[in-house]
Specification:
Low-confidence stretches: none
Strand content: 15-25%
Mean pLDDT: 89
Structural class: alpha/beta
Number of helices: 7
């Protein structure tokens, strides 16, 4: 059975007058490392998204708030959230070790893991839906951001982002990768500064 995105029912945002679109990778159903499910996009303890994002728009941190406040923030700033993968399936159902990882809080690089030159997981991408969403909102969209800034160890995922990036360039919409909002890879102060700069570049 595939591991479906935890928020598959709201994976493609429906709000009107979309100005900013933030694209992540995948939100598994269960986060073994933190012992709980996320309440919303980027809602895990390992993510600083709800502190970094508000600061990027010159507002106060919302990391201690919840889905209601997060959704309200996105509505007020015409922000849409989505992920590039809708489900993940292990190519070998008898592989207990990797089945165990399938719906748990693994890193993005594990989604592109190979054994004997074969990918462990089959990924169901939302690329075409995201491209359609961008086209539908091309008159109001100011920027599209991917919450990864490097292709390291995620070649299949990065190739999908490149398709979205190219589509944005063809439409004249600002698009770029951002430093990961996770607790890894740099200080929160530096990440806030870079995210704020990128939002400013799009205006």
């Amino acid at each position: 059975m595939p591991c479906q995105h935890r928020f598959h029912h709201i994976l493609i945002p429906q709000q009107e007058n979309l100005e900013f679109l933030f694209i992540g990778t995948f939100n598994p159903v269960w986060d073994a490392a933190n012992g709980k499910n996320a309440d919303y996009f980027y809602g895990r303890a390992s993510s600083l998204f709800w502190c970094i994002l508000p600061h990027a728009f010159n507002e106060n941190c919302l990391i201690d708030q919840g889905p209601e406040q997060w959704e309200a923030f996105c509505t007020n700033h015409n922000i849409g959230l989505t992920d590039i993968i809708s489900s993940v399936l292990n190519g070998n159902e008898n592989d207990e070790e990797h089945n165990d990882l399938l719906c748990r809080g693994f890193q993005d690089k594990n989604l592109d893991k190979k054994i004997d030159r074969q990918y462990v997981f089959n990924l169901d991408f939302t690329t075409h839906q995201i491209i359609r969403l961008i086209s539908q909102n091309r008159r109001t969209l100011k920027a599209v951001f991917f919450t990864r800034s490097t292709p390291g160890e995620i070649p299949r995922i990065w190739s999908q982002w490149q398709l979205i990036l190219l589509h944005c360039q063809n439409l004249g919409i600002y698009a770029n990768g951002l430093p990961t909002p996770s607790t890894r890879g740099g200080t929160i102060r530096d990440k806030i500064a870079l995210w704020r700069q990128e939002v400013g570049n799009s205006l």
